[in-house]
Amino acid sequence: MDSSYSFALGTSSSILPKLSFRNVENRFYGEKNNNNGLCKRFGSDLGSKKFRNQKFKHGVVYAVATSDNPKKAMTVKTSMFERRKVDPQNVAAIILGGGNGAKLFPLTMRAATPAVPVGGCYRLIDIPMSNCINSCINKIFVLTQFNSASLNRHLARTYFGNGINFGGGFVEVLAATQTPGEAGKKWFQGTADAVRKFLWVFEDAKNRNIENILILSGDHLYRMNYMDFVQSHVDSNADITLSCAPVSESRASNFGLVKIDRGGRVIHFSEKPTGVDLKSMQTDTTMLGLSHQEATDSPYIASMGVYCFKTEALLNLLTRQYPSSNDFGSEVIPAAIRDHDVQGYIFRDYWEDIGTIKTFYEANLALVEERPKFEFYDPETPFYTSPRFLPPTKAEKCRMVDSIISHGCFLRECSVQRSIIGERSRLDYGVELQDTLMLGADYYQTESEIASLLAEGKVPIGIGKDTKIRKCIIDKNAKIGKNVIIMNKGDVQEADRPEEGFYIRSGITVIVEKATIQDGTRRLLFLSQSQICFFFAASSRGLSLRKLIPSSSSPSVSRITMEGSGGDSGSMATPVQKKVHEAWRVYQYYLDKTTPHSTNRWIGTLVVFLIYCLRVYSIHGFYIISYGLGIYLLNLLIGFLSPLVDPELEVSDGATLPTRGSDEFKPFIRRLPEFKFWYSMTKAFCIAFLMTFFSVFDVPVFWPILLCYWVVLFVLTMRRQIAHMIKHKYIPFSIGKQKYSGRKSSANSGGGSRAD
C-alpha cells in the first residue's frame, strides 16, 4: 500500500560545513532547495516501512518524518546526506585568449597574451590548460583573436596529436571569424561577446550533456582544482559562481571587487572602482576565515575572473537578457546579481593576475625565491608544456644565484643573479645578469654561424661578451652585442623607443623581440636619464661625438643606462660640448616626465597656440608663416590618423591562413605616435612664434585666399582619409571600455576589449 509523507531537516550552520556543504544558512532544507537534487534524494532514500517518529541527537542533525499510514513507518538511510558528486564529463571550460594584450605590450607585439613565455619554459596558456587537465576536465575551448599564430602553434604541439592524452576529451581552438549578417562582420567586442559568438558549439550532440561551463582567463598564475570550484557551485545551486580572493587596498582598484553576505551570495559587484566607490567595497574579510591581521591587510574581495555558469543560465544571459553586453566583468555579472543567484567561492591559495608588465616581471622573479609562494614543481599537479626535446643546459665556470635556467642554454663564465634564463639562450664570457627575465630563443645558431656573424661585425642571437644587464625583460630572439650596459639607475618609469628596440614600462626596460643592439665596434648606444638614445661612430682613434659624450670606462663600451646624475665624461668632449650635453639631458629629462600626462601636455599646447594666434592678430602680419604652419600640421594629422601598416599598400592574393609574419588582428598602431604628434605640433607653434619677431618672414599676401585654399585642402584631404578609414575598418580614436552604469541594461553600450 502506497503512502505519502512529509519531512523537515534542521541543522546548525556550524555543522553543515563539516559535512562538506558550503555557503549554507541556518534554515530548513527544502525551503531554499525546493525540487532540487537533495530533496529528490530524500524522497528516494526514505523507505515506506513502518515509521512514526524518528529523532536524532539535537544539535547535530535531526529529522522528523511522518506517514499517513499509521501501520507503516519509514527508515532513514545515511546516504541521504551525501551530496551529488559532479561528473567532470559534464563540465566544459572556455579559456579567453583573444584580447589585444595592450597592458603586456611590447611582449604582445607579435604574440597573443596567452602565448607569452612564463617561468622559463612555459606559456601563459599552459596555466589554465594544466589546471583543467589536473582537474579531469577534458572538454576545453580556447577563444583566440589577436596575433593567434604562435598560440595556435603551441596548442597544436602540446595538446593535439602526440601531445597530452585527453582520454576521450578534446581541445578546440575557436578563432574569431566573420559570419553573414551585420553582427557577424565584427570581431570580438569583449569577453562576453566572444563567448556569445560561439554558444552554438553547445548545441552539438557531443556537448549537450554539459551542465556547467567554466570561463577562464589566459593571463593568470595560480594552481587550482576546478572541480572543487564546480562542486561548490553545484552544492549552492547557484546560477553563477565567482572565484574570489582577498586583496590589499593598494591592489584593489586593479580588479573587479565583490561584496558577499554571510551565506556566500554576491550582493554587489564593482569593476575596478576608485575613490569613494573603492571605499564602499571594503568588507570584513574575517567572515572568510581570515585572521584579524590578515583581514586588516586584505579588506577587499577581488573577482579572479574565473566564473562557473549553469549552461542554461549562460545561454539565457548572453542571448536573451543581455544580448548587447560585451564584457562579463563590467556588464553581465553586475546586471545578473539583481535577478540571479550569484555565489562567491573563496580561493585562499596563491593567485596573481600577470596582465601588466610590472606584475608579469615581479611574478616571474618571485619564482626564484628560496621559498616561493608559487612554483611549477609539484608531482601531483604538474604543469604541462610543449615537448621541445632540448639537451641539458651547459654552463662553464658560471656563478648562478637564485636563478632558473631552462633547457638548451649555453653559459660561459658568466654571472646570473636572481634571473630567469629562457630556452636556447646564449650568454658569452663576462656577461652579468641581475634581476633579469630572458625569454630565450626559438632556434639555435650554430657555432660556425655565430663565428661568421662576429667576423662580419654582426650580432648573433643572445648576449655578447662583457655585457651587464639589470632589471630588464629581454624578449625572444633578441641580439645584444658585447660591452653593452643596460640599467635604469635614474628609475625612469615610462619611455617608448621602438626605433631603438626597447621600451620602458613601470621602470622596467623591455628589449623587444628580434631587437638588435650593436656592440662597441659598430654603433654605441647610450641612454641617459632622459631615456633618449645617443649614437657614436667608432673610428681608428676612438669615438666621434654626435649627440652625447662617450663613456670613460672604455672607448668600446656601449651603454643603455638611465643614470641619476653626473654621468661619464669623455676625454674628447670640449667644455662647450659638456654644457650642451648637460642642457640637453635636463631638457630631455623634463620632456620625458610629461610622457604619461597627455591631458596636461595638450592643454599646454593649446596655450601656446592661443599665444601665437594673439601675436599674429595683434600685428596683422606673418600670414604666410601661419599658412605654412597649417600645411605642416595637416601632414602631422594625417600621420597621426594613419595606421603603421596601410592595408591599401598590401598585396592580397585572396583569403589565406595567418602566418607568423602576418599583421592580422594586431591592435591599431599609428604611423605617428601620439607623443611625437604632440611634440612636433608644439615645437612647430614655438618656431612659428619666434619667426614672427623677424620682419624678413613677413611676406605680404592676401590672407583670405590662403585661408580658403587651406580649408579646401584640409576638407579634401580629410575626406579621403576618412573614406580610407571606413573602407579598411580601423578606428584611430578610442575612449576605453564601456562600463556598466547599474541603472539600465547595457544594450546600448559600445564595444570594449578584453581586460588582459
List keywords for this structure.
756 residues, alpha/beta, Spore Coat Polysaccharide Biosynthesis Protein SpsA, Chain A, UDP N-Acetylglucosamine Acyltransferase, domain 1, 11-stranded mixed β-sheet, 9-stranded mixed β-sheet, 17 helices, 35 strands, 27% helix, disordered C terminus
At a glance:
The chain has 756 residues and is α/β, with parallel strands linked by helices.
Description of the structure:
The protein has 756 residues and is an alpha/beta fold. Among the domains are: 275 residues, Spore Coat Polysaccharide Biosynthesis Protein SpsA, Chain A (Alpha-Beta Complex), CATH 3.90.550; 137 residues, Hexapeptide repeat proteins (UDP N-Acetylglucosamine Acyltransferase, domain 1), CATH 2.160.10.10; 106 residues, no CATH class. Helix content is 27%, strand content 21%. Strands 17, 18, 20, 21, 23, 25, 27, 28, 29, 30 and 35 form an 11-stranded mixed β-sheet that branches. Strands 3, 6, 7, 8, 10, 11, 12, 13 and 14 form a 9-stranded mixed β-sheet that branches. A 3-stranded parallel β-sheet has the order 16-19-22, with no helix packed on it. Strand 11 and strand 12 form a beta hairpin. It is globular. 37% of the residues are buried. It is an enzyme of class 2 (transferase). It is found in: Membrane; Plastid, Chloroplast.
